[in-house]
Amino acid sequence: MIYLGADHAGFKLKVKIKKYLTELKYEFKDLGALELDKKDDYPDFGAKVGAAVSKNPKANKGILVCGSAEGIGMVANKFRGVRAAVVYDEESAKKSREHNDANVLSISGWNLSETKARKIIKTWLQTKFSGGRHARRLEKIAQIEKDNFK
């Protein structure tokens, strides 16, 4: 399952992403914002998606959109097993999956066109984790998480 979340700065792009995921025949669930509210706060939606992905971080994925992509991604990373990556282009999308097995994609509602967002999302969803030395590094991240978030 792909969980979606966006604040007011990412709302319009998230609407377009939903249409795109439907075209690609991906199953998704929109966790909000469900309507444009200029007074909403990105932590609310980053937390909803982070919590949902953390229930099964190997199978679930998330796509988050806020103004910069930074804040909402930071929130998602507060949840066990979540590896949210802030991505601005196809190459960083690819590397976030190959090297970091990112399970949450965080993108900018201010800086990305629909066309660029589509390319990033398609690359991110189609790229597999490469394993190898990167798996060892993810094990270290998991141990740090275990030691510090009891």
Keywords:
150 residues; alpha/beta; Ribose 5-phosphate Isomerase B, Chain: A; five-stranded parallel sheet; 5 strands
Describe this entry's structure for a reader.
The protein has a single domain, classed as 3-Layer(aba) Sandwich (Ribose 5-phosphate Isomerase B, Chain: A), CATH 3.40.1400.10. α2 packs parallel to α3 and α4 packs parallel to α5. It is globular, with a radius of gyration of 14 Å. It starts with a strand and ends with a helix. β1, α1 and β2 form a beta-alpha-beta unit. It has 6 helices and 5 strands. A 5-stranded parallel beta sheet has the order 2-1-3-5-4, sandwiched between helices. It is of the alpha/beta class. Helix content is 47%, strand content 15%. The model has no long low-confidence stretch (mean pLDDT 97).
SSE sequence, one letter per element: EHEHEHEHEHH
CATH superfamily: Sugar-phosphate isomerase, RpiB/LacA/LacB
DSSP summary: helix tally: 6
Number-wise, the strands total: 5
Could you name the CATH class? Alpha Beta
Low-confidence stretches: none
Give the averaged pLDDT, no decimals.
97
Overall form: globular
Q: What is the annotated CATH architecture?
A: 3-Layer(aba) Sandwich
Total domain count? 1
In short:
The chain has helices at 11-23, 42-54, 70-76, 90-98, 114-126, 133-148; strands spanning 2-6, 28-30, 61-66, 84-86, 104-108. Helix 2 (42-54) runs parallel beside helix 3 (70-76) and helix 4 (90-98) packs parallel to helix 5. The chain has a single domain (2-148), classed as Ribose 5-phosphate Isomerase B, Chain: A, CATH 3.40.1400.
